[in-house]
Each structure stands twice: as structure tokens, then as C-alpha cells.
Design the sequence.
């Protein structure tokens, strides 16, 4: 159970980075990352 | 001792510059898109790797592709390190028979090594199998350093682009490099060759390199010690007040640990990683056996962060730009190191009152082989960079002595900083300084002939603001919650220092600790791991976006009336910006921690 939680956390961290990249791309007005 | 300090520092600076200058030329060459085409030897080594991985190194990436590749690679790195720790019990190269690392600790360690932080909530020699130390931790030491340098290359390329390149130049408009090519070339042509030589030097000096487990030896004298008493289930026995009961034991045997230490040690310093094979880190004689290795270690910590700044000057075609940034970094480092040194010259008055000799300075928490001078230099350099290796316990420094390493971390790891990350974060401050100066003199801010516009400043703001938000929020939550306060070993202002240092060190990817905080708990393992990730990639992503935007801009030539970004005036402006923007954020928190502790210790009313 704890292993599953940690794997979900790893995925969330990756998505947070990707989300920030998409946000930065959107600010530039040139589309999505 | 003062003469020794200034003499050591002078010799250190000369040797460092003598090594960093030629290395900077090599770094600039490795960063060139034409690097693979210049040498048949390089091609013959690289070609099989490109074929195996299905990569075309000449194919440039714009910033979104570069960022996605970097995030994917590092995300998979976390997954690999986590899984290896969890299954190490059933894998070979585990002579001590260690079991799986606990989930929270494994998650924390995985994020820690991938983000170049190397915060260690565990005790290396009692937790990690040799396979984990080599295949997970040492590998990530190389890859995280290469990731940092890749981002520095990308931002430098973005600033250096003329904005009108053609494929014939080996360059394409809007492209900031190829992440896979950068990663492979930095690892293969920069980090590995130096580390092979470095490892041999360490082994020659007495550092160990083997695959043995623990070796039991019989000591000449009996050793008496107190150990916590445990019950039949292995839980600590507590007395009526809830304090652990200890028992007095005597032994004639000692366990000597083995392991591939030297090879991990070399990249630990060179890559500004800092994660030790042993819990005592560079205070352990197997990691740092002699005065010479101690000198080489502090030299290698600053080598790449110095060389990459000088390489930046070469890559943008104006070496004065590199020297200017280096001068700003060096001035701040020397000033804060000197404050730490003079603070450590004064021993704790409560110890001297009880008869402890005062002439050697504050010796508490220091390895006697190194003393105050080598310990203070190591502490300042390891925290100025994002290394975090230690040869003395920062928790035992005098309040102001400990405040200097903490301040160097809280400045945002821009005073040399991590490998690559120091340069790209400092360039964010350079753009801020240029922007502020532009507002003051009423001109359009420009750096290296490129206009700094609204989008650039938005990226700069994200990169600068995210770190203090995470550090201060994390510290505030830790102080507010019982789970956070439970880790404090020394309540009061020192306890606040322990917590602030932990969040500052993690978020800024340093990894050293005020060792008194017990951070191997679920609260700190998860909280600090998130902080490490946000601190690392919350800076890298906007920096790459900045690089991509800069790469699209045309570079104008020098003109009369433009503010020069080299020379003493700009050095002063840059230092002022770093302190105003970076340091003032933390003044209230630092005042409540080490400053209050200093005043309490040296107050006339102190007991």
C-alpha cells in the first residue's frame, strides 16, 4: 500500500513539473508544452 | 591560525583558477553543436551509443522538447532509484544482508539524489547495499550533475544565439541544444575522465574501494560505551519519565565497514552532490583520509562551478562577462567564509568556563585531523555550492559560524552554486540586476545585446520566488505541527535553526544538515522530498523557458549609452541584487534562529 502511495507521489511530482512547463509555455502565448 | 587561514585560502584560489581556466575551454568545446564532428575518436565512441539509444545528437530541440526530455529522464530516475532500494534485499552485492529501505525513506532518497541534493535521512553504511550505493546513488550523482550542466549550457546557448542562425552553422533558430546529446557528452567527456583519475588519487591516499561487507576485528583495548536498552521485540526501553534507558557495555571487537567508497567520493565532490557513503561523510577517514585529500575535496567542489562560469564567458564571446560573475561570487564567498572563521575562533564561553582549552577555537563537532581552518573552509565552500558534503558537524558551529553556511544556502545557491545550477540561477539574478538598473536609468534593459522583456521577467520571477515560498512555508508548517517539532533535538532558537536549515538545504538542493534534527520520519521524508523536487525543477523549467525565448531574439551590437554588464560597478550591482532580493526574504527567520542564539550565548546574563 505504501509502495503504491510513493509511486503515485512520483507521478504527481513529474506531472507538477510538466504542468509548470505548460504554464510557462502558455504565458508565452505560443501554445502548449 | 589567522595566517594559516588566509594562506590556505590564497593557495586554494590560485590552484583553483589554474585548473578551472583550461577546464572552461574544454566545457565550451563540449557544449558546441559541432563537438561530435571535430574528432574521429569522439565519433567512434559516441556513434554506438547514439545507435543504441536511437538518438540523433545533431537534431536540435526547442525549449518545450528539451524540458520534456529532461523531466521524463529525471522522473524515471526517481522511479529507478526508489525501486532499487525497495528490492535490494533480493539482489547481489549486499554482503551485509540489508533489507529493503523503508518506503518513505526510499522515496526521499530517490528524489534527493536525482535532484542533486543528496539530503540523507538514513545512515549509509547501515542501510544501503553496495549495489544500491553504486547502481542508484553514484549513477545519479553523475546524471544529476550532467542535468545541471545541460541546463546551464541551454541557457548560455539561448543568450549567445545571434537569432539568425542557419543549419549550416550547426545551429538552428530557437533551438537550445539537444538534452540527450548534452547529457551523454557531459557524462562521457567531462565527469567520467576526471572521476577515474580522482578515484585513483583517493585510493592512493588511503580511501577504500572494495566490495566487502563488515570485517570484525579484535581491538587491543576494551571499549566501554553506553547503548540504549531494547526489549525482546527490539523496541527501546523507557523509564518512568519516558526517557530511553541505557546500559553500560564493554567490547573487545569492532566492525570495520567495506565498500566502493573512493569511486562514490570522487563524483560526490566533483558533481556537488554531497551524499556520503558513510553517515559521517567527509569526516570519516575512509572517505577523507588525509589533509591532502581534504584539500583536493574542497578544490573539486568548486572546480566545475568555477569552470562553467568562465565557460559562459567563452560561449557568449566575451570572457569579461564570465569574470564579472565569478568576481561577484568570490567576493561574497570570501566575506561570509571569513565571518564563519572568526566566529569559530571564539570557543563556546560555557565550555571554556568549565575548563576546556580556548586556544584552538571551537572544536566541538570538528574532526581533530582538520581543526577550525579546514573545517570552516569546507563548510563555507560546501554550502556556497550545492554540494552539502561535510567534514565537520554544522550543528556544533558557533551560532554565527553556523549562520554563514545557512546564509550561503538561503541566498539561493548562487555563490558558485551547484554544477550548472549555480550559473543558471545566478544568470537569473543578473537579468534582475540589469532590469532594475534599466528602470533606474530609464533605458530598455538589455543583456548581451538582447532585450529583456515582460515574458523574460515573468520567468525570472517564478525562478526566484518559488524557492523562498517553499522554504518559509515548509519551516512554518514544521514549527506549527507536532510532527515537525518532534524532530528537534535542541528546542528554542537552535531548534528553529535546525528546521530552517533543513528546508533551506532541501529546497536549494544543498543537502547538508544541522545534524541535530531527526528528519527520518514520514513527515520530513515526504515534505522535504517535495521541497527538493520543487526547488530543482521549479527553477529549471522557467530557466529553460527563458533560454528558449532568448534564443529567438536577435542580438544587437554594442552601442554608446548601453549599460555595461562587466566591471566593478556591475559586480557591486549584482551583489546588491542578490542580497536585496535573495537574503532579505530570510532576515526575520534568521534573526529568530542563529542571531537570537548568539545573543543568548554571549549575553552577560547568560548562566
Sequence:
Amino acid at each position: 500500500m505504501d509502495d503504491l502511495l510513493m509511486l503515485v507521489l512520483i507521478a504527481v511530482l513529474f506531472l507538477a513539473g510538466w504542468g509548470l512547463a505548460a504554464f510557462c509555455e502558455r504565458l508565452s502565448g505560443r501554445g502548449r508544452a | 591560525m589567522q595566517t594559516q587561514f588566509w594562506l590556505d585560502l590564497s593557495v586554494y584560489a590560485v590552484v583553483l583558477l589554474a585548473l578551472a581556466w583550461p577546464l572552461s575551454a574544454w566545457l565550451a568545446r563540449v557544449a558546441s553543436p559541432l563537438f561530435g564532428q571535430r574528432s574521429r575518436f569522439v565519433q567512434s565512441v559516441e556513434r554506438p551509443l547514439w545507435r543504441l539509444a536511437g538518438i540523433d545528437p545533431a537534431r536540435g530541440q526547442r525549449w518545450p522538447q528539451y524540458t520534456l526530455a529532461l523531466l521524463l529522464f529525471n522522473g524515471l530516475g526517481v522511479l529507478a532509484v526508489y525501486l532499487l532500494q525497495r528490492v535490494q534485499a533480493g539482489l547481489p552485492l549486499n554482503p551485509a544482508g540489508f533489507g529493503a529501505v523503508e518506503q518513505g525513506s526510499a522515496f526521499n532518497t530517490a528524489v534527493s539524489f536525482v535532484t542533486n541534493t543528496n539530503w540523507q535521512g538514513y545512515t549509509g553504511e547501515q542501510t544501503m547495499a553496495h549495489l544500491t550505493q553504486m547502481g542508484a546513488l553514484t549513477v545519479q550523482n553523475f546524471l544529476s550533475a550532467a542535468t545541471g550542466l545541460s541546463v546551464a549550457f541551454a541557457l548560455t546557448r539561448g543568450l549567445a544565439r545571434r537569432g539568425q542562425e542557419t543549419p549550416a552553422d550547426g545551429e538552428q533558430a530557437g533551438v537550445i541544444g539537444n538534452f540527450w546529446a548534452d547529457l551523454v557528452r557531459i557524462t562521457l567527456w567531462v565527469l567520467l575522465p576526471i572521476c577515474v583519475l580522482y578515484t585513483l588519487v583517493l585510493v592512493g591516499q588511503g580511501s577504500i574501494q572494495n566490495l566487502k561487507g563488515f570485517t570484525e576485528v579484535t581491538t587491543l583495548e576494551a571499549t566501554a560505551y553506553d547503548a540504549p536498552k531494547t526489549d525482546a521485540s527490539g523496541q527501546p526501553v523507557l523509564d518512568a519519565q519516558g526517557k530511553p534507558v541505557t546500559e553500560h557495555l564493554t567490547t573487545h571487537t569492532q566492525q570495520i565497514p567495506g565498500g566502493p567508497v573512493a569511486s562514490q567520493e570522487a563524483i560526490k565532490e566533483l558533481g556537488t552532490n554531497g551524499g556520503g557513503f558513510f553517515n559521517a561523510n567527509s569526516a570519516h577517514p575512509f572517505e577523507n583520509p588525509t589533509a591532502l585529500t581534504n584539500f583536493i575535496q574542497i578544490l573539486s567542489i568548486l572546480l566545475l562551478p568555477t569552470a562553467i562560469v568562465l565557460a559562459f564567458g567563452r560561449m557568449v564571446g566575451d570572457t569579461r562577462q564570465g569574470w564579472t560573475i565569478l568576481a561577484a561570487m568570490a567576493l561574497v564567498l570570501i566575506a561570509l567564509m571569513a565571518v564563519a572563521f572568526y566566529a569559530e575562533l571564539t570557543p563556546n564561553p560555557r565550555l571554556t568556563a568549565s575548563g576546556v582549552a580556548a586556544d584552538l577555537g571551537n572544536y566541538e563537532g570538528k574532526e581533530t585531523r582538520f581543526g577550525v581552518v579546514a573545517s570552516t573552509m569546507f563548510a563555507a565552500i560546501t554550502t556556497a555550492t550545492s554540494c552539502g558534503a561535510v567534514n565537520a558537524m554544522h550543528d556544533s558551529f558557533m551560532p554565527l559560524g553556523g549562520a554563514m553556511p545557512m546564509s550561503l544556502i538561503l541566498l539561493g545557491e548562487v555563490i558558485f552554486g551547484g554544477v550548472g545550477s549555480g550559473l543558471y540561477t545566478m544568470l537569473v539574478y543578473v537579468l534582475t540586476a540589469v532590469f532594475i538598473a534599466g528602470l533606474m536609468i530609464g533605458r530598455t534593459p538589455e543583456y548581451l545585446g538582447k532585450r529583456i522583456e515582460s515574458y523574460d521577467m515573468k520567468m525570472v520571477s517564478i525562478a526566484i520566488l518559488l524557492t523562498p515560498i517553499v522554504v518559509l512555508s515548509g519551516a512554518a508548517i514544521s514549527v506549527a505541527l507536532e510532527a515537525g517539532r518532534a524532530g528537534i533535538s535542541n528546542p528554542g532558537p537552535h531548534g528553529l535553526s535546525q528546521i530552517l536549515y533543513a528546508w533551506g538545504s532541501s529546497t536549494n538542493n544543498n543537502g547538508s544538515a544541522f545534524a541535530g534534527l531527526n528528519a527520518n520520519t514520514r513527515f520530513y521524508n515526504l515534505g522535504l522530498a517535495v521541497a527538493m523536487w520543487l526547488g530543482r525543477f521549479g527553477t529549471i523549467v522557467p530557466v529553460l523557458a527563458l533560454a528558449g525565448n532568448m534564443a529567438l531574439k536577435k542580438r544587437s551590437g554594442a552601442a554608446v549609452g548601453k549599460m555595461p554588464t562587466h566591471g566593478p560597478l556591475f559586480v557591486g550591482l549584482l551583489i546588491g541584487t542578490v542580497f536585496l532580493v535573495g537574503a532579505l526574504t530570510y532576515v526575520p527567520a534568521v534573526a529568530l534562529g542563529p542571531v537570537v542564539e548568539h545573543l543568548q550565548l554571549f549575553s552577560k546574563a547568560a548562566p
